[in-house]
Design brief:
The protein is an alpha+beta fold. Helix content is 63%, strand content 12%.
Length: 155
């Protein structure tokens, strides 16, 4: 609403400047300065003040058009930043989920199952090499997921 009133307010404020024919400045004995549109008859020290004309309607229109273009460019830039920010947040969220899944997978792979032990004679057992390979692979996947997250976050 304020943006729509801006041109009207500008014209209303500039209108009196273009309609006023002359402005007079007077200084009384106490040094008080007064501005009027007609010269007072009882004052000796009267100066005519030249007022510069206000901007033309074309100039005002050009300025308003330029302001609209700037405002539009700012809004487009803001939208673009918002889209980039949203996309980045989505990538970070996805990478965080991948890290979380990799951590769960590692925890699951670290659990020793019945098939992970090989029984030896004499009641002894040892852990099969496949278990260590499985855990190592899950750890590598977790490390890679953390690297991707770190890269996306920009660290």
């Amino acid at each position: 609403m304020v943006k729509k009133l801006y041109p009207l307010v500008t014209v209303v404020l500039l209108l009196p400047l273009t309609l006023t024919a002359e402005v007079y400045r007077t200084v009384d004995e106490q040094g008080n300065v007064t501005y009027t549109d007609s010269p007072p008859a009882d004052q000796n020290k009267v100066e005519r003040v030249e007022i510069q004309p206000g901007p033309s309607a074309e100039s005002i229109s050009d300025t308003m058009e330029r302001n609209r273009a700037i405002r539009k460019a700012m809004e487009e830039a803001q939208e673009k930043r918002l889209e980039k920010s949203t996309a980045r947040k989505d990538r970070v969220s996805k990478a965080e989920q991948e890290v979380e899944e990799a951590e769960k997978q590692l925890t699951a792979m670290e659990e020793l199952g019945d098939d992970d032990r090989q029984q030896l004679q004499g009641g002894k057992s040892y852990i099969r090499p496949e278990y260590f390979e499985r855990v190592k692979k899950a750890q590598r996947e977790l490390d890679e997921a953390k690297k991707r997250l770190k890269k996306i976050r920009g660290y």
